[in-house]
Design a protein that fits this description.
The complex is a heterodimer. By secondary structure, chain A is an alpha+beta fold. Among the domains of chain A are: about 5-200, no CATH class; about 210-300, Immunoglobulin-like (Sandwich), CATH 2.60.40. Chain A has 15 helices and 36 strands. Chain A is elongated. Chain A starts with 9 loop residues before the first helix and ends with a helix. In chain B, strands 1, 2, 4, 6, 7 and 10 form a six-stranded mixed β-sheet that branches. A four-stranded mixed β-sheet of chain B has the order 3-9-8-5, with no helix packed on it. Chain B is elongated and about 45 Å long. Chain B has a single domain, classed as Immunoglobulins (Immunoglobulin-like). By secondary structure, chain B is mostly beta strands. Chain B has one helix spanning about 20, and strands at about 35-40, 45-50, 55, 60-70, 80-85, 90-95, 105-115, 115-125, 140-145, 155-160. The longest helix of chain B is centred in the first third of the chain and has 4 residues, at about 20. Classes of the chains: A alpha+beta, B mainly beta. The interface of A and B includes residues 22 and 151 of A.
Chain lengths: ~750, ~160
């Protein structure tokens, strides 16, 4: 039953309606001047008699009248607003809410089918052989402006925004609910949807325009870039909810190559372009109107590490990663993955098949690097989603490679740490029929992989390695209760560990074990990786491994050289915002033969370093710099900014300890740095800008002795083996536990021997 | 206050305080109030947290806690400005002494009602008349309802039990 306006207080009524009307104006859809002025005059009179007149004035802008019952369920009826929408565009309307039971909870709208709105950022595709018809009917996104809960007043107004994917005549069913926080209100609105309590409305959607994007690299060559398009009200185009691969619902940008299009309604937009951290983020404003003009994106690099022989790769990305599984799919295909890798200017993307979707994704493993065309995976489904743009080849396509390999995650041994197996020739462990048959601890898998020439390591190495200190190195014993380096401290003593992957989490958690292992004389690489889209949804290449080569890797042979150089330590890892373009210790670079000194001596360090902070400190840069160390992005050059300057600290690290620091102007220009220090024993020598990048060490032998930099490091690792066994042994199958116990004993003996050999405390 | 009322990210997609910024401020321990955020460029935004105010018959005014997150390290006075309705219906005041520049600071906003019945009170926060927010993010609205006629004791004030 509708509220009698004669009993409604005028002041709160007009306050609410004027606030909503002003919001409409802010969204570019004001009332007519005449209607607005009359409304303001009525509000000034603050007379309850004016409410009827006000209702008449706003009726042509009101999409829905909602009456909320005592349980928060909404009964909706159609308002008088003409239901005209724009293809791929947003339109705003008034939502009139009658609240006779004075509820003070959140209001939410649900549109479409029962599954709509149940996810944070995506429509849900039911499992079906052909999802096309479901995609076709998921054409509308709804958003309520202003999230504060209802006031408890009898009548309130809100602004409801709708985004149509389609053109032409379309209909949708709306349902509404009111509840407090969490999912309560969804239950009310879903209840309404499930019980046909919703309101069915028909809309007319006028067509938009295909805007052609021209993308040129610094030398004029065509390429793929990440494009983020927003209107003045912050709406993202194309709508994130209404996306299919290669456009991802979990990221605001889309990847477009030269000559590909985005569909936009007439209006003004901000277009942001970038191609990974080696490029300057460029922003320009465009106006879309007939005749439609193309948008030219001329990219600008601040650094090109390839000129110095460095080629970036990401050794941990997924085609069926966590965020892909926010809807039940099999993940995406190589043609989508290569588009994302090209759009971040990565030379190599290691696409790792893991437990979820193993049986589907393993078909893409070939034992070779590939560089497929970035075509549409399912043109039929794209057609169902009203996507009409055609993929184009670009001149830079051949500069990016995919290599499908394996992450041992979602397997019986995963609790011992997730393994990354690169350059596999066979991806199925012998004698197994599926992941569930694989060994329940890691060493047998590593040894099997290494026998076939694989490069092996641990993923997201910081998991399970966290302690209460953030210094490097530290000597606290981690809990080993997660899936990072963990068993790696045993495997390394068996010669079965090439690298650990990080640049995702707090560097102290990620690198402490690495420092200690290096200080005991072990050789392994610290690699940059992303775990896209699991740890980071934003893009591949959040964490990067820059590998030194004589020529760009552009085919399988090039990949073989890249991964071999990676394994040999010709690399630095980081966020791509700082670079060690050259780093030499007495002329020896990382990955070169070790530097041999007859006796303790001074060493000369020469480096070319480039880093780029934004010239101006902004709210965005400060948000990164001041965020907690454990928050993401954990690795970001902004965290290294010194005060309000544009400088960062470059540290010379010997055996894990910083021995020299020099401030470097982070203006993007390569700068030569010369340092020296004195070595009295065999050592490992690195440079770092934390938390942005870290070089692989140069190993120096004094008097032909092995690196035994710190007895305390060996003692730490020895203690860790016991803690690790305590934590992990119960997860190992009984018939494998004996062999595992022997392998752990081997590690104990190895570390005890190193303790004996270490004369440095 | 419930954590979900704070922004879950600090990437600029939300103009309210992040849960991280509120952590340690003590605001998770109380039911609500107003959070005013001053960004590094000294722009002011405000969000209200919690439920509507209900005054009883012995109250003519109410004190609402205000948490100021001062990212701009501003040391100018922060003022609360009544936008509507007119002062003959309601008045608001807040100590307008200069901010200390500390990252977190607490103030109290006093709302005084001159009439009975429901009111929708709109308030802006500003540190300089030129520094208003173009998108209206420096403004909040508060729904107050005094259930019965004014008390005989106009100076009687009661600490807010926890809510806006």
């Amino acid at each position: 039953m509708s509220i009698d306006l004669r009993g409604v207080a005028a002041q709160p009524y007009f306050a609410s309606v004027l606030r909503a009307v002003e919001k409409l104006k802010l969204l570019g859809q004001p009332l007519s001047t005449e209607a607005y002025e009359k409304l303001v005059a009525l509000a000034k009179s603050s007379n309850s008699n004016g409410l009827m007149d006000a209702e008449s004035l706003i009726a042509p802008y009101t999409l829905v009248h909602l009456i909320v019952d005592a349980d928060g369920r909404g009964t909706a009826t159609a308002g008088l607003a003409p239901r005209n929408l724009v293809e791929h565009g947003w339109k705003a309307f008034l939502l009139r809410i009658e609240n006779p039971h004075a509820l003070e909870d959140d209001v939410e709208a649900l549109v479409g089918w029962r599954s709509w709105g149940a996810r944070q950022f995506n429509a849900v595709l039911m499992d079906t052989i052909n999802p096309g018809p479901i995609i076709e009917r998921q054409w509308l996104e709804v958003k309520l402006e202003d999230k504060p809960p209802l006031n408890g007043f009898e009548i309130e107004f809100r602004v409801i925004e709708l985004c149509s994917r389609d053109r032409g005549e379309r209909w949708a069913r709306f349902s509404f609910g009111v509840g407090r926080g969490g999912s309560y209100y969804f239950r009310q609105s879903e209840w309404a949807a499930a019980n046909n309590q919703g309101l069915e409305l028909e809309f007319h959607c006028v067509p938009s325009h295909d805007v052609n994007i021209r993308v040129a690299d610094v030398d004029g060559q065509s390429c793929v870039a990440a494009i983020t398009i927003k209107d003045p009200h912050g709406h993202v185009y194309p709508s994130q909810i209404l996306r299919l691969p290669p456009d991802m619902a979990f990221q605001p940008h889309v990847y477009r190559g030269d000559g590909e299009a985005v569909t936009l309604p007439e209006g003004t937009y901000t277009v942001e372009c970038w191609r990974g951290p080696e490029y300057v983020r460029k922003v320009r404003h465009i106006h879309v109107t007939e005749p439609v003009e193309e948008v030219r994106v001329n990219l600008e690099r601040w650094i090109d590490p390839a000129v110095w022989g460095w080629y970036p790769g990401d050794v941990h990305i997924h085609a069926a990663g966590c965020s892909h599984f926010m809807q039940p799919t099999r993940g995406v295909n190589p043609e989508t993955m290569i588009r994302h890798v090209r759009g971040e200017a990565l030379a190599v993307g290691q696409v790792l098949t893991w437990g979820p979707a193993w049986n589907y994704q393993k078909q893409f493993f070939s034992g070779h690097a590939i560089s497929p065309a970035a075509s549409l995976e399912h043109p039929d489904l794209q057609a169902s989603n009203n996507v009409s743009w055609k993929p184009q080849l670009t001149q830079r396509d051949g500069e990016s490679l995919l290599r499908y390999d394996v992450e041992v995650s979602g397997f019986p041994s995963s609790i011992c740490g997730h393994l990354i197996l690169l350059r596999l020739q066979q991806q199925e462990f012998p004698g197994t029929h599926g992941p569930e048959d694989w060994p329940s601890w890691n060493l047998p898998i590593l040894q099997w992989a290494m026998k076939q020439g694989a490069v092996v390591g641990y993923a997201h190495c910081g998991f399970g390695m966290n302690v209460s200190e953030e210094t490097l190195p530290n000597y606290l014993i981690p809990s080993f209760d997660s899936v990072g380096t963990n068993e790696g401290i045993v495997d390394v003593t068996h010669g079965a560990l090439d690298f650990i992957g990080g640049c995702e989490l707090n560097p102290a958690y990620e690198m402490n074990a690495w420092y200690h292992m290096l200080s005991c004389g072990f050789r392994l690489v610290f690699a940059g990786e992303t775990d896209y889209p699991c740890i980071y949804d934003e893009r591949p290449g959040v964490g990067r491994s820059y590998v030194r080569l004589d020529a760009r890797p552009s085919d399988d042979a090039g990949y073989q050289k890249w991964i071999a150089s990676f394994r040999e330590g010709r690399l630095y890892a980081g966020d791509g915002r700082s670079h060690f373009l050259d780093f030499q210790v007495n002329g020896h670079r990382p990955g070169d033969p070790d530097l041999m000194l007859d006796k303790p001596a001074a060493i000369q360090i020469r480096a070319f370093v480039a880093a780029r902070l934004e010239p101006q400190i902004t709210e965005e840069t400060e948000a990164i710099r001041r965020s907690a160390r454990f928050s993401r992005p954990a690795w970001h050059l902004e965290r290294a900014r010194i005060g309000h300057s544009r400088e960062v600290a470059l540290e010379l690290v010997v055996n894990g300890e910083p021995v020299k620091t020099v401030n470097v102007l982070a203006d993007g220009e390569p700068r030569e740095v010369s340092l020296d220090t004195y070595l009295d024993r065999s050592s490992w020598v690195s440079i770092r800008i934390m938390p942005s990048s870290h070089s692989h060490p140069v190993f120096v032998h004094v008097g032909a002795k092995p690196v035994r930099a710190s007895r305390r490091s060996a003692e730490w690792l020895r203690t860790c083996v016991d803690r690790l066994w305590e934590e992990k042994h119960r997860f190992i199958r009984e018939n494998e536990r004996g062999a595992a116990a022997e392998a752990y004993d081997h590690a104990r003996r190895k570390y005890e021997a190193i303790i004996e050999e270490s004369d440095i405390p | 206050m419930s954590a979900e009322k704070a922004c879950q990210s600090s990437n600029g997609s939300c103009h309210g305080p992040t849960a991280l910024e509120l952590e340690g401020s003590g605001w998770f321990d109380q039911e609500g109030g107003i959070v005013v955020t001053i960004n590094p460029e000294a722009r002011v935004s405000a969000v209200r947290i919690g439920r509507s105010l209900r005054l009883t018959n012995i109250e003519t005014s109410i004190l609402v806690p205000v948490l100021i997150i001062n990212k701009g390290r501003v040391t100018a006075p922060l003022r609360a400005i009544l936008l509507r309705p007119e002062r003959d219906l309601v008045d608001v005041s807040m100590v307008s002494q200069a901010l200390s520049g500390a990252p977190n600071e607490k103030r109290e906003l006093e709302i005084r009602l001159a009439v009975s019945g429901p009111l929708d009170v709109a308030i802006a926060f500003e540190i300089s008349p030129e520094g208003g927010d173009l998108a209206g993010r420096d403004r909040i609205h508060v729904y107050v309802r005094r259930e019965s006629p004014l008390s005989e004791e106009p100076d009687d004030r009661k600490k807010c039990a926890g809510v806006i």
